[in-house]
Amino acid sequence: xxxxxxxxxxxxxxxxxxxxxxxxxxxxxxxxxxxxxxxxxxxxxxxxxxxxxxxxxxxxxxxxxxxxxxxxxxxxxxxxxxxxxxxxxxxxxxxxxxxxxxxxxxxxxxxxxxxxxxxxxxxxxxxxxxxxxxxxxxxxxxxxxxxxxxxxxxxxxxxxxxxxxxxxxxxxxxxxxxxxxxxxxxxxxxxxxxxxxxxxxxxxxxxxxxxxxxxxxxxxxxxxxxxxxxxxxxxxxxxxxxxxxxxxxxxxxxxxxxxxxxxxxxxxxxxxxxxxxxxxxxxxxxxxxxxxxxxxxxxxxxxxxxxxxxxxxxxxxxxxxxxxxxxxxxxxxxxxxxxxxxxxxxxxxxxxxxxxxxxxxxxxxxxxxxxxxxxxxxxxxxxxxxxxxxxxxxxxxxxxxxxxxxxxxxxxxxxxxxxxxxxxxxxxxxxxxxxxxxxxxxxxxxxxxxxxxxxxxxxxxxxxxxxxxxxxxxxxxxxxxxxxxxxxxxxxxxxxxxxxxxxxxxxxxxxxxxxxxxxxxxxxxxxxxxxxxxxxxxxxxxxxxxxxxxxxxxxxxxxxxxxxxxxxxxxxxxxxxxxxxxxxxxxxxxxxxxxxxxxxxxxxxxxxxxxxxxxxxxxxxxxxxxxxxxxxxxxxxxxxxxxxxxxxxxxxxxxxxxxxxxxxxxxxxxxxxxxxxxxxxxxxxxxxxxxxxxxxxxxxxxxxxxxxxxxxxxxxxxxxxxxxxxxxxxxxxxxxxxxxxxxxxxxxxxxxxxxxxxx
Length: 759
Prior knowledge:
By secondary structure, the protein is mainly α. The protein is built from 34 helices and no strands. The chain has helices at residues 3-17, 23-47, 50-68, 78-94, 102-125, 129-142, 146-159, 164-176, 180-193, 198-224, 228-243, 252-279, 283-299, 308-326, 334-351, 353-370, 375-383, 389-392, 403-414, 427-433, 439-453, 457-470, 474-505, 508-524, 531-568, 572-583, 596-623, 627-643, 656-663, 666-678, 682-694, 703-715, 720-734, 741-757.
C-alpha cells in the first residue's frame, strides 16, 4: 500500500474513533499510530535504493518526453500517438506504488497532466484525420506537387471512405492519366453511395461528361497523328464506359467507328515495321512481326479486308528462312535448321493455297537431302489410336460447321452471364411465358426455374417429374413436355460449357465426366435425335476437341523440352523413351499435331544410341574378363565416335589411349597394338601406341611400329574423298605432337603415293 494511502487510512480511522476513547487509551492509541506510520515510512524508504529511484525517475522523464512530442502537424503518427498514450497510462498505473517518494510523486503528477492533454489531442484529431489529409493535399496541388498530393488523398480516403471531395480530387488525377473507367466508376460511387451535397453532385456530373469528351477528343488527335495503338487504348476505355453509361452521354457509334480506324491503322503499322525489318535483313524480327500481324488480322478480320501486303511479306520471310536452312548441312546445326523449317511451315500456313504447297515441297526436299524417313517412328505413330470426343460420341457429329461461332450462339441462347441475365431459350424465360390450367403445375415450373438457376439439375428434373404426374389434360402434358425439352437443352449447354472450361484448365478427367454425364442424361430422356441437342453437342464436341488438340501439342512441346534435357545430360536412352511417347500422342481425326521437332531429335540421337549399343557390347566383354576382345571392340567404338563426330553432340567418351594408360600395363598396350593391326583397326592401334607415350616411352622406342602403322593406314583401300577427309583428320590430330613424328611422316609420304596411283 502506498505511503499516502496508508496515512490517509489511519487519519480517517483516528478522526472517527478518537472521541469515544477514554483519556488513557487516547494517549496510547495516538502513540501507536504515530509509531506505525514512522516505521512504515522508514521501511518503504529503505525498499528503494538511490539507483532504483534514479531509474524510475529516468523512466518518467522518457515517458514525459515521448508524450510531449505529440503534434497536430503529424497526422500520420496518430496510430502511434494513440499507442504511446495507452502505454503511458499503463506506466502510470504500474508506478503508482512509488508515489510515497516526493520526487517520484512530482514526476507522477507531471506525466499524468501531459498524458491527459495528449489523449485529448489524439481523440480530437482521429475523427478529423481524413479532412486534415485532404487539406494538405489541396495545399500541395496548388504548388503542382501531384505525386505527394495523390498520396495524401489516398490517405484521406483510407481514413474515411466516403470523403466526397478527396474522392473527387482523386478522380481529377486519374482522369489526367486517361483512366476513364476508374474515374467514372469512382464518380458513380460518389453519386450513388456517399450522399454528396447538391454542389458536390453537380461537380461529379460535370466531370463525368468532361472525362468522356476529353478522352474522345484525345483519341481523335492521336488517330490524326498516326498513333493508332495509343488511341485504341483510350477508345477501349470509352467502349467499356459506354456499356455502363448511366448518364446518357455516350456516342457508341462514334467510338466503334474510331476503333475500326485504329485496328486498320495498327495492322498497317505492323506491315510497315515488318517491311523495314526485311529491308535491313533482320528476318528474325520480321518473322516475329509476321506472326503478330497474322494474329491481329485474325482477331479483327471483319475490319481488315485487304491482305495483299501481308501475303507479300510472308513470301519474303519464308523464302529467306528456306534459303538459310539450305546452307545448314552440319550435324551440329540440325536443331537450328529444324527450327527454321518449322517456322517457314507455320508462316506459309497463314497464306495457304499454292504458296503453302510449294513451301511444303521445298521443306521436304531440304529434309530429304540430309534426313530420311524413320520407319520405326512412323510405325509407332500409325499404331497409336486417334482420340477425341468426336470419335467417342459420333452420334452427335453430324455436320462440318464453324463450331466456335455456333458455341457463341448457344451460350447466348442458354447460358446466363453479366450481360445476358435471362437467355432466351432458358427455363427461366419459359416458366414466365408458359401458363397451364393447373396452377400447381405453374408453381412446379417456377420451382424448376429456381433449381436451374442454382445449377441443381437433379432437383429441377425431379420437380418436373412431379409436374408430369399432376398433368391430366393434353394441354398441360404438352406444356410439361416442352419444359422438359427446355431443361435438358439448357442442362446440356451448361454442362458442355463447363467441360470446355475444364479442358482450358487442363482438367481432362473432369471434362470426360461432364461429357459422359451429359450423354447419359440425353439418352435417359430419349433426346439424341433432338436437333437442338445435336447442334449443342456437335458444336461443343468439336470446340473441345480443338482445345484438346492444342493441349496435346503443348504436351508434345513439353516432351521436346524433356528430350533436349536428356540429350544435354547424355541420357539418350531416356530421350528415346520420350520420343516414342511423343509419337504416340494423337488427337481426333482433324487434329494436326506438329511432330517434326520430335523426328528431328530422333535423327539427332540415332548415332549416340548406336554408340551406346556398341559400348554395352564392350562392357559385356569386360565383364566376362575377355580383355583382348574388349580392347578390340573399344577401338571400333572409338573409330565410330570419331567418324560420326559425336563429340559435337556432347557425347562423353574416354579414349582408348586413356583406358590403356589407366591399366599402367605396357605389355597389355603392346599386345593391343599388335591385335588391332591384325584386325585392321589402325587408328585404334596408333592410339594404343599413344598409351606407351603416357607410360613414359620415348618416340624412338616406338619408331618401327609408328612407321608401320602410318604406311598401312595410308595405303588402306577406300574412296578418294573419304581418304582425303581421313588425311585431314589425322594431320589435325597428330600434327602438333612431335612424339608421333615417325607415324605422321610415313603416313603423309605413302598417302601422296596413294593419290598418284588413283590417276
